[in-house]
């Protein structure tokens, strides 16, 4: 997920590695440059790393690959109130072991890999053939976006005054608007991160409480589609899906899907087990034969796994100063490889740093 | 490349197909909606489709896959003067059959797949072990961007006045700026398409010749990295690569690479033969063993292939009214699936429509 690999030719890769751990010559050269985004992440204090609660981690075990290697995919579920009803359904289905024995049945290049019940295509059924467990919550299109709530904290960036979120929500707004990188977004008035996952926002003017004038604050927010985002497949409007059929993005962020479908989280480990699957050749990228499906052994909440099998991850607090510095540098890389700072970044290229906690 | 597959659950996929060729009920429902982007492309006149010259197509034949299926990758080379020196080198190397017998030796998830000479890692060599053919042109970082030239035609969109390109270059600018979709770009002042491939631009103010005031026109332009873009791997600055080592993007557009590395074209057919390759597990995503490499049988310019083996493609003229309408609709999808138009789009999500010409 958070690769820092660069487009070095192979010789340079090896040369760069051969130089580690940094003889004097390299150290001198590096001093000409500001800290890289990787260095900023490395220097972040322990307090800036937040552990993802075990009930927010979904652990999907696929059948071993053709060489017998295990395949584990870990999904971080998004926090309430965003996509709350779908996430509740997903927890209910995981506890009921609903996905066990089902499969990945669809793969479309530069689009998505999709899993659930591949046997839902008979007659006019628009639900999976396998009965859903009790307690599934009805969902509706209105819940694709939520009203901003006072208790909700997060970081939002707008590229200019028109798009700025209020300072209380976004302590870095002034710097960004005045002289910082361009974080504009053609898909939303502002974007940001809510406890490690990307969101976008619609803003509204309001009177600043200290009487200094008008400002903007978020009115509505919604989760956005980035590479590895997980969403809820559905039928045509007004169906909004239950969470039984899920997909992961394996290409350029399909942002037009934002507010049209529920994003429920992000694959934080093992996305490559999905992205390298052969593409389906039947309509809509569904596999033509059952033999092409990838069997799902199990899907569990990490909180239901024994301690020894429970993965643990921390993300760099997206409200921390370390994250702000990391985002700034990501938008303006300047080092022995990058000589022209981009001057900006989109929400999906500011990838939230993650660390697996090894016991 | 230009999939229109949507995130329907499988039942809906089948249902949608079952409805084709559109009984009356569907036709009536469709009338509530504006033409889809697919319908706009379908309705484009023949005059809006431009054939890609055979000397701009690079045909890469990989070894058959493990099931014996052939793997062909077709790359559209970008037109001069953009990245002109690297493209000249690539043509020279293709004519010399330089890549034949080499391999894909690197694959990094959500980043790139890279090919060329995997044996360049000995000692301090920063060039491939295999000697390059005669006639390779020296390249330099300055050539990552080019000055806008009067003879150069293309379409550029800026999101607002500050970013607008002049009307002569962009006849759709006024509409876009006033009430059209948001085509802003955090990475550049404007973006557009030059004969089918995406570019970005830096603008400058100038006096409009009719005396009505100041306007903007492009000053510099450069090719941008999107999904499937092909670029030239290189060593650390100031090395700019020759074109011998190439990569294709297989993830979210790595736009920070723009102006830092030469983009030379785009995979227009067969990207899935690259994107599904297992990821490399050695440093920088290089494969650990030779056995993991994907052998390259041959790389040829289409113009050097016999007629019967020569692929032919047309793209939807990016300066046509059909393309403008397609881009508008792509930024504002509204149909039985998409109920909230995005209101904007980024350069990489307005995928240039392509058609293979079957003999």
Automatic annotation (TrEMBL), chains A, B:
<dbReference type="Pfam" id="PF00160">
    <property type="entry name" value="Pro_isomerase"/>
</dbReference>
<feature type="domain" description="PPIase cyclophilin-type">
    <location>
        <begin position="85"/>
        <end position="277"/>
    </location>
</feature>
<dbReference type="GO" id="GO:0003755">
    <property type="term" value="F:peptidyl-prolyl cis-trans isomerase activity"/>
</dbReference>
<feature type="signal peptide">
    <location>
        <begin position="1"/>
        <end position="27"/>
    </location>
</feature>
<keyword id="KW-0413">Isomerase</keyword>
<dbReference type="InterPro" id="IPR029000">
    <property type="entry name" value="Cyclophilin-like_dom_sf"/>
</dbReference>
<protein>
    <submittedName>
        <fullName>Peptidyl-prolyl cis-trans isomerase</fullName>
    </submittedName>
</protein>
<keyword id="KW-0732">Signal</keyword>
<dbReference type="InterPro" id="IPR002130">
    <property type="entry name" value="Cyclophilin-type_PPIase_dom"/>
</dbReference>
């Amino acid at each position: 997920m958070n690769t820092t690999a660069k487009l070095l030719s192979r010789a340079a890769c090896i040369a760069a590695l051969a130089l580690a751990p940094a003889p004097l010559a390299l150290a001198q050269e590096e001093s000409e440059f500001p800290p890289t985004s990787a260095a900023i992440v490395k220097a972040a204090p322990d307090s800036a790393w937040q552990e993802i609660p075990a009930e927010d981690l979904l652990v999907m075990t696929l059948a071993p690959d053709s060489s017998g290697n295990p395949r584990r995919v870990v999904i971080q579920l998004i926090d309430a109130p965003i996509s709350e009803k779908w996430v509740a359904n997903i927890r209910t289905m995981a506890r009921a072991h609903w996905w066990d024995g089902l499969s990945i049945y669809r793969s479309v290049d530069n689009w998505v890999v999709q899993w659930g019940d591949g046997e839902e295509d008979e007659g006019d059924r628009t639900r999976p053939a396998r009965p859903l467990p009790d307690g599934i919550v009805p969902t509706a299109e209105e819940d694709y976006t939520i009203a901003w709530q006072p208790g909700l904290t997060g970081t939002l960036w707008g590229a200019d005054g028109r798009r700025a979120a209020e300072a209380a929500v976004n302590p870095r707004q002034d710097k960004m608007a005045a002289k910082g990188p361009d974080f504009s977004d053609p898909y939303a008035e502002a974007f940001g991160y809510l406890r490690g996952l990307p969101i976008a926002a619609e803003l509204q003017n309001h009177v600043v409480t200290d009487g200094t004038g008008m400002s903007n604050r978020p009115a509505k927010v919604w989760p956005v589609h980035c590479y590895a985002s997980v969403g809820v497949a559905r039928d045509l409007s007004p169906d909004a899906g239950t969470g039984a059929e899920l997909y992961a993005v394996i290409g350029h962020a399909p942002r037009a899907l934002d507010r049209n479908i529920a994003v429920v989280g992000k694959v934080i480990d093992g996305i490559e087990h999905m992205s390298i699957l052969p593409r389906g050749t039947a309509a809509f990228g569904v596999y033509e034969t059952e033999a092409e499906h990838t069997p799902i052994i199990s899907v569990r909440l990490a909180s239901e796994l024994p301690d020894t099998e429970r993965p643990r991850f921390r993300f760099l607090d997206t409200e921390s100063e370390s994250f702000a510095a990391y985002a700034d540098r990501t938008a303006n890389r300047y080092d022995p490889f990058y000589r022209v700072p981009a001057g900006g970044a989109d929400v999906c290229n500011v990838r939230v740093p993650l660390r697996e906690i090894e016991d």
